Amino acid sequence: MTDFKANILAIDDTPANLRLLVGILNEQGYKVRAVPSGKLALAGIRQSIPDLILLDIMMPEMDGYEVCQQLKSDELTRDIPVIFISAINDVLDKVKAFAVGGVDYITKPFQVEEVLARVETHLALRSLQKSLEQKNAQLAKTNEELAITLQQLKATQEELIQSEKMAALGQLIAGIAHEVNTPLGAIRSSAGNISKLLNQTLEELPPLFQSLSPEEVQDFLGLLQRSLQQEISLSTKEERQFRRSLQRRLEELAIDNADIIADRLVIMGVYQEIETFIPLLKKPDSLPIVEIAYQLSELKRGTDTINTATERASKVVFALKTYARYDNSAKMVPANLSEGIETILTLYQNQIKQGIEVIRNYAELPPVLCYPDELNQVWTNLIHNALQAMNYRGTLRIDINQFQQQAMISITDSGKGIPEDIKSKIFEPFFTTKPPGEGSGLGLDIVKKIVEKHSGKIEVESEPGRTKFTVFLLYN
């Protein structure tokens, strides 16, 4: 508990919530004044200035953001800590709450311990602030204590930034889980097929070699070797064309089961220059022979699938690790721009792969001295906006080039474009064209601030079917 009797103003249009808050705080000795609307609260606040305000966001007539903005514009009330309370648990809503002057955010339904902890913490901070203001003349004597307090606040801020970053990552987690589960499923399926085919083929090989002449054994091994050397991946249409052509050729040679054998050979990648294998294929029992060769070649294809899936899963895990990291050294370090962009593309792969064509044009540039984690937030916002602008259907082009003594990064989408009359407003805080609940209008404002922190600039060009954001970063 704090060492003074605190006055708390609770503003919420839901009577049940007010009753719950009053009950929780009264039990701890706080004086609580409950008001059911923002307008009533603003009208009477000068009569009794509270030490802390609990403010609901979603209220009729005047929402919590507007109430907070008016409080912060009034010299008498600007220093009162405001804790937002809301059932909305969206990252951008939290960002907006902090941007208009809130000091904290509590999500409904309330947890008693959380409400008390946050209220007590901010009352203590408020008490400390008042004490520091009253003892301004003694600042020289308390310099060391202030330095320690500042360091603690800085550490807390870094933890909050990382926490919000993880919350943003939570919005992507379903797609990322899919990107990991898909290769894991391929590995599981391929491993099962390999085990099944291996057991089956080991039983069939001895009788097969006993039934073949030395020349036929060489033809069989040659067929298998040809298949194992194939690296070409055919489309479904190409497979169908080659299968029909090969089937006609086998039928002309009066080879039994021409359709099944053609299907197996095309899958094995053996569909051209088959003259060497015709004697083997003309044998009365050629189908079982081809089936065994097919099964053996499937072992290699299953292994290739496992290798590809493992590489894919490792790439997603690496991207997650890179994005989740937070460098609290506050020092600029040399970084490869394309690696940061590829990290974000990997995290968005599930949203991209269904209907987005990604065109990469990366020039080889020297590393740029920067804050890599913050630039990753720039790429995240620009790529996410581009995908939304295209409704996840279209072309995303990313160019990295050098322009004079600057790195130039362009992200272009094929969406409907930005209307000319709002183009000048898109970097303004809280300006958004998205439907309610999908954005607070802070994304491009954050992007611009990060770019300017790097002594760079960002430009936009837009017309229907083509919108390009270009970031310029200086080589330091």
UniProtKB/TrEMBL annotation:
It is an enzyme of class 2 (transferase). Residues 7-123 form the Response regulatory domain. One of its GO terms (molecular function) is phosphorelay sensor kinase activity. Keywords: Coiled coil, Kinase, Phosphoprotein, Transferase, Two-component regulatory system. Its EC number is 2.7.13.3. It catalyses: ATP + protein L-histidine = ADP + protein N-phospho-L-histidine. Residues 269-476 form the Histidine kinase domain. Residues 125-163 form a coiled coil. This is histidine kinase. The modification 4-aspartylphosphate is found at residue 56.
